[in-house]
């Protein structure tokens, strides 16, 4: 992992990205910490042209975006146009809102839809990725849902954006999933996993939890990862302090 391959998803600081003024201020803070790239996610209704201009002026690369699943499936060309404006190759399906994946017909229709969307992205030289949560580690017909999603989509059309926290939360091993997604893993969401008590886990700054971050990064690298994206869904302190802690701790693994 190179230093300039470390990125931050704006989802972590989303509360400070809802207006142009706030976004500009936030991007400056992110750059000052040392990040050189961001993933655009959960920001306010800001014109992509303005987002790109801010990032260019500050010196931040837009490595990827998150777009609503419905937009990706139903308005694929619009999303591609946005990616072109941002000079960005990657986007990801962030969360299967209102989808009952325990219904095999619903799940398989979703798989079919994202595979079709992914083929359109591929023809436009863009890459559609899948971001998991813990829910995809439920079983249907004795098969892990996430395994069914990857098995029944073309690896040229659907790549991975594994989230290591949610893999752990789902009872699986993030390192094993990095291996499983070899040559299908351009993006990874890095966050740490901490136990609050006997039963409850919570999001932690990278290095402050109990995940084997060093070997996760190593396996992701071997699987062809291009962007190591810091995410912390909720922070127990100032999120800007949290993202600085994560960045500084990740520097230990830079080669």
Q: Which of globular, elongated, flat, extended, rod-shaped describes the shape? A: globular
CATH architecture: Alpha-Beta Barrel
Main sheet record = 8 strands, parallel
Instruction: Tell me how many strands there are.
Output: 12
For the record, the count of structural domains works out to 1
**Span between termini:** 6 Å
Lateral strand order in the biggest sheet: 8-5-4-3-2-1-12-9
**CATH homology superfamily name:** Divalent-metal-dependent TIM barrel enzymes
Output the structural class: alpha/beta
**What is the C-level CATH assignment?**
Alpha Beta
Our count of helices gives 10
The percentage helix is: 40-55%
Tell me the series of helices and strands, N- to C-terminal: EHEHEHHEHEEEHEHHEEEHEH
Instruction: Give start-end ranges of low-pLDDT stretches.
Output: none
- What is the rounded Rg? 17 Å
Q: Would you tell me which CATH topology applies?
A: TIM Barrel
Mean pLDDT across all residues, rounded?
Answer: 98
Strand percentage lies at 15-25%
């Amino acid at each position: 992992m190179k230093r300039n391959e470390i990125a931050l998803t704006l989802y972590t600081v989303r509360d400070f990205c809802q207006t142009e003024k706030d976004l500009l201020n936030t991007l400056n803070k992110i750059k000052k910490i040392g990040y050189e790239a961001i993933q655009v996610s959960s920001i306010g209704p800001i014109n992509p042209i303005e987002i790109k201009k801010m990032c260019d002026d500050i010196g931040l690369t837009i490595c990827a975006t998150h777009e609503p699943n419905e937009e990706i499936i139903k308005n694929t060309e619009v999303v591609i146009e946005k990616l072109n404006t941002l000079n960005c190759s990657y986007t990801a399906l962030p969360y299967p809102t209102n989808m009952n994946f325990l219904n095999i017909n619903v799940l398989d229709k979703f798989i079919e839809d994202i595979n079709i969307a992914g083929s359109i992205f591929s023809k436009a030289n863009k890459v559609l990725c899948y971001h998991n949560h813990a829910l995809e580690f439920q079983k249907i017909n004795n098969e892990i849902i996430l395994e069914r999603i990857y098995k029944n989509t073309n690896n040229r059309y659907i790549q991975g954006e594994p989230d290591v926290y949610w893999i752990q939360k789902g009872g699986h091993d993030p390192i094993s999933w990095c291996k499983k997604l070899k040559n299908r893993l351009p993006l990874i969401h890095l966050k740490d996993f901490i136990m609050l008590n006997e039963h409850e886990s919570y999001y932690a700054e990278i290095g402050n939890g109990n995940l084997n971050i060093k070997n996760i990064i190593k396996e992701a690298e071997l699987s062809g990862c291009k962007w190591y994206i810091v995410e912390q869904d909720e922070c127990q302190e100032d999120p800007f302090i949290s993202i600085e802690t994560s960045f500084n701790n990740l520097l230990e693994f830079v080669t």
